[in-house]
Amino acid sequence: MSVAVPTRARSSAALVLAGVLWGTGGLTGSLLASRAGLHPLSVAAYRLLIGGVLAIGYLWFTGGLRGLPRTTSARRRLLAVGGLFALFQTSYFVAVSSSSVSVATMTTIGSAPVLLTVATVVRTRKLPTRWTAVSLAGSLIGLALLQWTPGEEVNAAGVLFALLAAAGFAALTLVTANRVEGLDPLPTTAFGCLIGGAALTPAALWFGMAVPVQADVLALVVYFGVVPTALAYAAYFRGLEGAHPVLAALSALLEPLTAALLSTALLGERLGTVGWCGAAVLIAALAVAYSKP
């Protein structure tokens, strides 16, 4: 018991950190797109490429590449993570362009825990526990209230691509839940981002990737690649080592919550009574998820 509790606490802390850092990515990506005039797909490519290059540079500088396994299973894992990064990012931004940020985010982040729960039930042939069901239902209600926009039209194509993005994120969670011997979370993140970014580069070049050489734009690019990408995904993969995949997916709900709070604090956007109620319900549901086995 003395070993299990700290491990669970460290995993939960890593997942919370990942969700909060992801939440800063939405604001950063929006600022980068507006300041540099980039297409959303180009923003996603920059996010993965910069995150991958800087993370690999850090590993090279600290000697973290020396013990990197060169086995077939390690190569397959990195290719799978890179492909799923590209699928998730592309599908999400297509969903955003087809519908809206709120609908795409709510559908993607809200569907991923449901898909993971279904996959877990099919794999284990056991129904989710009562507390898992309570946390899942509360999270979906809280997310819907947080992202609720009266009178907003829902585009079928946007919802479809958002569900595809959710499936990609769920698959990424399941794939990385089982660690490959010798392959730590940071190298997995670094090479996965680089491979995913390389896969998106041809389409991003077609849309245009030129950015103005300005200090604020370059700072946004570096921050976007490092904090909500390299650090966030490394923390997420680290948390997965000691947490259930469904709990990990629920942690991603901290992304829209953090983004909403940051927009309220920094951009002067009003959350509204319904939004604040959604934030409270979401926090309570996540508290249940972290406190119960």
Keywords:
293 residues, 0% strand, globular, mainly alpha, 11 helices
Give the SSE map:
Elements: H1 4-36, H2 40-62, H3 72-98, H4 101-124, H5 130-147, H6 156-177, H7 185-207, H8 215-240, H9 245-251, H10 254-266, H11 272-291
In short:
With 293 residues, this protein is mainly alpha-helical. The chain has helices at residues 4-36, 40-62, 72-98, 101-124, 130-147, 156-177, 185-207, 215-240, 245-251, 254-266, 272-291. Mean pLDDT is 81; it is low at 1-5.
How many individual β-strands? 0
- Roughly how many Å apart are the termini? 13 Å
* Coarse shape: globular
How large, in whole angstroms, is the Cα Rg?
18 Å
Q: Can you walk through the features of this model?
A:
By secondary structure, the chain is mainly α. It is 81% helix and 0% strand. The protein contains eleven helices and no strands. Helix 2 runs antiparallel to helix 3 and helix 5 packs antiparallel against helix 11. It is globular and about 45 Å long. The relative contact order is 0.23. The N terminus is likely disordered.
